[in-house]
UniProtKB/TrEMBL annotation:
<dbReference type="InterPro" id="IPR023997">
    <property type="entry name" value="TonB-dep_OMP_SusC/RagA_CS"/>
</dbReference>
<dbReference type="InterPro" id="IPR036942">
    <property type="entry name" value="Beta-barrel_TonB_sf"/>
</dbReference>
<dbReference type="InterPro" id="IPR008969">
    <property type="entry name" value="CarboxyPept-like_regulatory"/>
</dbReference>
<keyword id="KW-0998">Cell outer membrane</keyword>
<feature type="domain" description="TonB-dependent receptor plug">
    <location>
        <begin position="115"/>
        <end position="229"/>
    </location>
</feature>
<keyword id="KW-0732">Signal</keyword>
<dbReference type="InterPro" id="IPR012910">
    <property type="entry name" value="Plug_dom"/>
</dbReference>
<dbReference type="Pfam" id="PF13715">
    <property type="entry name" value="CarbopepD_reg_2"/>
</dbReference>
<keyword id="KW-0812">Transmembrane</keyword>
<keyword id="KW-1134">Transmembrane beta strand</keyword>
<keyword id="KW-0813">Transport</keyword>
<dbReference type="GO" id="GO:0009279">
    <property type="term" value="C:cell outer membrane"/>
</dbReference>
<protein>
    <submittedName>
        <fullName>TonB-dependent receptor</fullName>
    </submittedName>
</protein>
<dbReference type="InterPro" id="IPR039426">
    <property type="entry name" value="TonB-dep_rcpt-like"/>
</dbReference>
<keyword id="KW-0472">Membrane</keyword>
<dbReference type="Pfam" id="PF07715">
    <property type="entry name" value="Plug"/>
</dbReference>
<keyword id="KW-0675">Receptor</keyword>
Amino acid sequence: MQRTSCLFVLIALLLSMTAYSQNNRFSGKVISASNAPIPGATVQIKNSKTAVATGEDGSFVLSSAESQVTLVISSIGFVRQEVTARAGVAVQVQLQEDAKSLQDVVVVGYGSVRKTDLTGSVSSLKSAQLQEIPAVSIEQAIQGRMAGVQVQATSGQPGAGISIRVRGVSSFAGGNEPLYVIDGLPQFNDDVRGANGLSTINPSDIESIEVLKDAAAAAIYGSRAANGVVMVTTKSGKVGQPRVTFESSLGFQTIRKKLDLMNADEYISFVKSFYDNMGQPYPADIQNFKKTVDTDWQDEVFRTALLSNSSLNVSGGTERNRYFVSAGYTNQQGIVRGSGYKRASVRLNLDSKVSDRFSIVTRLMASRAIQNGFSPSLGDNTRNFGKSGIGSILRSVPTVPVKNADGTYTDTSPFNLNGIDVENPVAVADEVLDQNTTTRVQGGLDLKFVIMKGLTNTTRVSADFYHIRRDLYFPRILPRLGNNIGSAELGLYDKTAVLAEDFLEYRYDFAPDTYIEAIAGVSLQRDRLNTVDLAASGFGTDDLKNYNFTAANTVGKPVTEITESTLISGFARVRFNLRDKYLIGASIRRDGASVFAENNKYGVFPSVSAAWRINQEDFLKDAQWLSNLKLRLSWGQAGNPAIRPYQSLFLGRTVNTGQGAGTGLAVGLGTTFPNPNLKWETTAQTNIGLDAGFVNERFRVTFDYYIKKTKDLLALVQMPPSAGIGAGIGTGPSQIIDNVGEVENKGWELSLGANIVNTSDWSVNVEVNFSANKNKVTKTKDNKDIQASVGGNDASGTNSVIRVGEPLSSFLGPLFLGLDKNGVPMHLNVNGDKDPNGNDIIGAPDWVIIGSPYPDLYYGINPTIRWKRLSLSSIWAGVSGAKINNGGLFELTSPIVQGTYNKLKVANELYPKPSQAAGNYHLRSSRFMEDASFFRMRNIRLDYNFNMGQSKTIKNLNAYVSGQNLLTWTKYSGFDPEVNTFNGNDRRQGIDLASYPAAKTVTVGFGITF
């Protein structure tokens, strides 16, 4: 019995010792050479699967059965290090920057590559940089931060479209938007004027954004890469205990600048001055006018708007399974009452290593966004300057109140001399339904199988579905937009994109510093767009808005359409690295696209590139002051297929007509003329670049010079009148879409970086980028001008032209020479034509090039200062050399008063003697092409990272205050110089036609990690 008791005691003691040994605790902190914490570093017990990631303060904790272990610490950009650790004794590990090998990984097409091994031109932003600005959509976060990449908004409206231009524009009608690749799924930003599809993605979910700029980097995407490629990679989980991060911010937005409009007294004075100069009596309603109110319509409609943004993510995992789960909600009021943008999104990213050979990568995102607009101008006769939200604010006469005594809205064109092309802006803001609702689901699977050492096969299946519902209702109380009877529109747009790819990746290491990498695969992508457009008018009540079309007196014929397109491809790429000195790369892609004609279904897009790491040569290898010196050279071709499907086919259309025995007879009509030779626009680009780093990468320089030549540009061209057909994508008879022109872009890019101070308490870093681009049309069909106007329904006031020797969409018009002694504008009379009274006849033969909408230079400056736990970062950006066709200035300074409305105060300076004679020469001349140059504080942010001590619950806590667009220096007289009403693929560029104003914002926020 005694032996048995002793045995039990011994067993219990051994078990307790075993249990204790399994809980040996190892802790410490990982810091850089400057003693700054390194978050996200991997700490692993050598020869085991136990690993964790360091927290925001660089700390880590893990357990082991051993009392002494070897820890392996690694982090991108630092030299891997091993240290011995004993249980219960905290260690501090200082990692040295791996400047020699520049281990930063850059995402490229179908894979990633070390920055040091790049042979192409790529700009990159990582998650930490993206979080410096509280952006609502991802493209806002890169404005002013990448050389050669220009981001431009169509307006300041929340959720409005944004266009990105990579190294200039090169297309008439084929599109200038880059290709976006989100977690491997290629897609275009289809709707850049309305609901911005990219804004459905939560910026907090983004791990990195890379822009592939030259052909060597982008040609792997072949026929879609002529305008560059934007690679978006979302976050993955990291090995370690679950980490919960919550971020929230609240912003206050106000209008950046109000326009200086006339008040009631100034308006009446201007009207009287006109009649005085004309020697005519005042109209009775002007003569008898007595001021009772002085309404500032801008104050009535613009407001201080709130912007709230919250996100929650949970991440973690083991070596086998890693996860990242997030949810986000954004609510952005617009600075115009009634407008705004709301978005809710969820994401699930899983990385599973099923076995040593097989792994699965899963990406899934769902979002829903609602955008409430403010009736933007469409530039046509139905929705022109006055019949738009912002236009109505500017045109409304200040002599009337918002509402009449009986509660009805006033007529804001109260005098008989006024026109009728204006609505009450408060009524438009409060009563109009103008809403886009976007529901989007996007996801994919990557199945990776290691066939043998160095050889991996990836099968990728992805899909992207979005549904947009477009609701529009102008109520009966609006006499112009609603026609006093109510006018409704409903649009339903469903798009599904499905991608299936399979590719092999192979790497063979000849030596530690010599290897070859190759990739080859096939791809199939199919897009389908279903469209339903409905219109109706004549409603007995406004209560149901556009939700009950059967209540309308007049219902238009429904327009339904299904368009499908297919792209089938084969691609390959090879990279060779010899002794970490000589880098050679080549790629080729063959695309077959259904949108092109039978004679040109397939295109081949090759690229070659090379780089020489000069600092690895013997004569520089020991130079301590030089950490990197690389010369790059590349050439390649890429395409642009961004035209609507079926443009190469002869299509029919059914219409109702009164021909034959009765009315309403359906007749099939051919409305397009087929072009069996239609093909891609092809861009060939040559790039030479230099990368240099000094003093262990404390100072960095990147320079690129490029030449882009685009041929076979797509455009509408005139056919002989005898053809008697229309192309169906514009107006005017006898047109056909054809490959007719060539465009050249030449430019340079310079990026500078410096870590000026880097100590334990202080760091001062500066990043600067400059870009210059020269755009020139080198060929059109028969070298004839191509007008940018969309036809007889164009009410935008554009006077742009595509002309050989000039930039795309250059402004064409009369050259303003000043005022004569009677205050009448004078213009350059090229041909000297005179009327019988000896006055100049200024017409189309006198028009000359008066400006370009594209800047000569754009630049960004991004300094960051850190003192202990306090940091100050800012983003400054600017452009110079561009012009804006200021439609608002032209509309609101007319020297006549009949048929016009309120004026800008500057009208008194432009026309000190308003008269009919002056009005006859009020032309869209160089006088209204204003300098669009600006320099702006895009963002400034002050952060404080709290010391959480030994807290086991809260790993990190930081708070910040930031401001966006707080300071802007510009000569532009409109709301904002960074605007383009007809952005995207429209040929009418550089026009400000009553665009939604930009806001300046102050934001406070915090982030906490558990």
